């Protein structure tokens, strides 16, 4: 083996399974980025503490106002569980973000490597990124979710994405052919759902839907 070939092998980044890493999520490192990360984490801690404080005040007021009848106890229990679910869900999202070690891609999968627990994998071309940026999700400031086409609720993973100063577009350019092929094979309802909201999704994924429609016709004709 020549020296050039050896250098090429050594220059390749491999994961723990010896698969070549073709892309890794990175950010433009600036003083503002570091400051913004501190602000985001402070904001999340404040929101979580706010949930707990509101939960305590509301439950205390409800407990004092109820007559302690059976229906009052049931209603009190339901409201308590609702507040606990919201606070617990938000706390889990914080823990999940802290547990994200790195996000990278091999030729076959997008891999979310975690400090604790098994790595999460998405088949190449089966996913897209979606920013949380509207008012309803303000408490998840600067979060981005990786969602699987057709399984947005069940197969999704959110991570902190400060200032959106990432290199996701580089990955999109690499996986465009695989993504279009994947979309040509999924259920029509799931395809139409994604197609109808594609223009509203950020970061933008520049897909050729005419090409995808042609591929779908070819697959359906077989």
Key terms for this structure?
6 helices; globular; alpha+beta; 222 residues
Mind explaining what this structure looks like?
The longest helix has 35 residues, at 31-65. This protein has one domain (31-221). A hairpin with a 3-residue loop joins strand 2 (100-105) and strand 3. The protein is built from 6 helices and 7 strands. By secondary structure, it is of the alpha+beta class. The chain starts with a helix and ends with a helix. A 4-stranded antiparallel sheet has the order 1-2-3-4. Strands 5-6-7 form a 3-stranded antiparallel sheet. The protein has helices at residues 3-11, 31-65, 70-98, 168-183, 188-197, 209-221, and strands at 23-24, 100-105, 109-114, 120-123, 127-132, 143-148, 156-160. Mean pLDDT is 83; it is low at 3-10. This is DUF304 domain-containing protein. The chain crosses the membrane at residues 33-58, 70-92.
Q: Total domains, how many?
A: 1
Q: Which range does the strand content fall in?
A: 15-25%
Mean pLDDT: 83
Structural class: alpha+beta
The topology string of helices and strands comes to: HEHHEEEEEEHHH
The largest sheet, given as strand count, sense and whether it forms a barrel, is: 4 strands, antiparallel
Spatial shape: globular
Strand order of the largest sheet: 1-2-3-4
What is the straight-line distance between the termini?
A: 45 Å
Helical stretch tally: 6
How big is the Rg?
22 Å
| Low-confidence runs of at least 5 consecutive residues | 3-10
Counted beta strands? 7
